[in-house]
């Protein structure tokens, strides 16, 4: 028999599976992922994403591999502004390493994967000259030679391969109109590809688990918040290297960018298919918003309130009631998924309103969403010129008292509400002056 945890996890992932089908993900992995032997595990997850209908563009780095081969051949490594100075000898090394690495990746992705979750899967991999580059030029008097920057992405050709169900694999190389090859930064290439394809997601597999402040992982950031953290200079060198590209991508049309640990098995799936994730997600706009509910939201509202009704925390409401009263409800969306709801019923003659049906998804109850919904109702009440807000509750009175509500007598309720008071529930009445 499947465990309850499996069922709940599968249900949690289901909305994401539906939402991501047909969407483009750009996944960037550094050379350390390949050098450490971790890629074989990641390949299983990539295969799984493709099998779920996600269109994958995989971009790999080769920095440690280049360093290793330069050392073996006693060629000095040169850097300027954190970029490799690529002379002719180094460029030959770059091409050699890129070809060998791409071959290894294709071989791993082509495995039948016996005794793995993707046993029997067959993934087609496409590579090609999809990237046009130009020389980076002379920086501070240093000629960067064959170090280049992205000039153009052939997004139409990449989409054509994705349309055929293929995974597109890109090495950090670009080609000029004059037939020269240039060494590119993997991070810049991934960012530019994601922007050109208008990708749903850009994900970087990095050394750390994401943005960490005061030993706490920050799971979500807006682009503005990420920029402020970078400016403050309090982030690790690894995160600081990738975050600017995540910010740029979201500023230029990519819906979400992610920083994910390369060390944790299954991190890619956990970040994209669970509500809490396990890395840091960057979005241009705030991920949480409260809006007026519509009839289309009723199924989600019922899903939120049903467990609380069964516990006796909320009064039971059926679909017909919600259809009639839906204009009084608001829903909280987190990353485009409904994670909370609340209702406000106004009694204008008494200059008060009832806060009702406050519910938050069990997975997000530590995220402060209840507070956000309460603030929304308070704002709406003030906007209507109301002077107070009341709530009837049997089990959560302490939560409201901590937020400024005071217990009072039921006779303080508007007369119309007194007549509907359920003596069997014996709810406590709490009032807050606005």
What composes the largest sheet? Answer: 8 strands, mixed
Within the CATH hierarchy, at the fold level, what is the topology of the largest domain?
Carbamate kinase
In order across it, which strands form the biggest sheet? Answer: 5-10-2-1-13-17-18-16
Mean pLDDT: 89
Number of strands: 25
Distance between the termini: 53 Å
- The coarse overall form would be elongated
Low-confidence stretches: none
CATH superfamily of the largest domain: Acetylglutamate kinase-like
- Helix % is 25-40%
How many domains make up the 3D coordinates? 2
The fraction of residues in strands falls at: 25-35%
**CATH top level label of the largest domain:** Alpha Beta
| CATH level-two architecture of the largest domain | 3-Layer(aba) Sandwich
Number of helices: 15
| Radius of gyration of CA atoms, rounded to a whole number | 27 Å
| Global structural class | alpha/beta
Task: List the topology elements.
Elements: H1 4-20, E1 24-29, H2 31-35, H3 39-51, E2 55-60, H4 63-72, E3 79-80, E4 83-84, H5 88-109, E5 125-126, E6 131-135, E7 138-139, E8 142-143, E9 148-153, H6 155-163, E10 167-170, E11 173-175, E12 181-183, H7 186-197, E13 201-206, E14 212-213, E15 216-217, E16 220-222, H8 223-232, H9 237-251, E17 256-261, H10 267-273, E18 280-283, E19 288-292, H11 298-311, H12 319-325, E20 329-334, E21 337-347, E22 352-360, H13 369-383, E23 388-393, H14 397-401, E24 406-408, H15 415-418, E25 428-433
Helix pairs in contact: 4-5, 7-9, 8-9
